[in-house]
Predict the structure of Precorrin-6Y methyltransferase.
Amino acid sequence: MSVVGIGADGWDGLPEASRRTLRAAEVLIGGPRQLDLLPAADCPGARVAWPTPLLPAVPGLLGAHEGRRVAVLASGDPMFYGIGRTLAGILGPDRLRVLPHPSSVSYACARLGWPLEATETVSLVARPLDALTARLHDGRRLLLLGEGADSPARVAALLRERGWGGTRIRVLEQLGSPREALLDGTAADWPHASADPLHVLALDCVRDPETLRLGVTPGLPDEAYEHDGQLTKRYVRAATLAALAPAPGELLWDIGGGSGSIGIEWLRAHRDCRAVAVERSAERAARIARNAAALGVPGLRVVTAAAPAGLAELPAPDAIFIGGGLTAPGLLDACWDALPEGGRLVANTVTLESEALLAERYRRHGGELIRLAVAAAVPVGGFTGWRQAMPVTQWSVTKG
Ligand SMILES: C[S@@+](CC[C@H](N)C(=O)[O-])C[C@H]1O[C@@H](n2cnc3c(N)ncnc32)[C@H](O)[C@@H]1O
């Protein structure tokens, strides 16, 4: 099976190898818009339009044409947020011949004079817009794959709401076609309610002066969170994330989520990280979801339950953090049993009762038992003295 990338310039923009493949195909599969780009005289193969929704129909469609020369049309580069990924997953890469075309982001970088390798891309297609927030840094250039005619207006509204109103937005429409067009403005006064649905957005990020500056490492300022006091404070949080050591694709259980900070900073560590926060208070669970959206990780799953209730239904974790509920009967055992060999467990506490439990586990399973004591300088009369926060005992261990 061949997968042929095609651009908005249609047949005229195809290299000879792609044309040869399409001429020779017995079956041509693609979106109606893409199929219409092929001249009937050159491409006599039977034409099959993708149904919507596409994904569930793919295996049946491929099976129906087994043994014939099939060419699937994809927009731009088939392996960049495209159908190539789905087909490679179903057929295996060895049964695919992919003929790429420049992607929309290659075109956008060409028009903007931006180096592709230094330009981060965020897809808004079938993804929550809030995820964009985690990618915003002063002076950063971003390309967004838009979804629908209103996505520039929605992006502008989000940027205003999150304190990035000065950000320049350029909407590059119909890239590569004779109908290319550009909309240009700032988020603060974006005038266009809609755009051509085929577009890429280019952002030059500018933070409003009063917007809190957030870096990329764990240990965000406590003010970044809405909280009721149940928050792992900045320095202990940074040390906790260091012990948890997130890696791309890994899943964290954040038990006793509180304000959600541990799960949130786990997710901010890499876009492929996954996390579930388990919190018994419904009010706090709602707050965790708000914090996750505001800090750009709307994918944080929040489960309202008093652990160990609810844990059995969760997918197996790579790491577990226990920030609350240590003394709940069966909680530590349930966590330990759920952890695969090589998985990490980190538990923090400020109470003697929970500390005794952690000391006993430390004797049994090893790992590291540490005490974190942070003091901050505060005014004392006309002078300055240390205010000591409650020391936090932390047990961290790798299973097996
Ligand atoms: C100290 S806070 C955790 C702070 C959190 N790591 C953060 O930074 O926001 C402890 C939280 O655990 C929750 N909790 C206590 N026992 C629990 C249990 N058995 N299951 C789920 N949540 C629990 C409490 O409601 C509280 O919100």
In short: Residues 253 and 320 are 5 Å apart (CA to CA). The chain has three domains: 2-101, 105-204, 222-398.
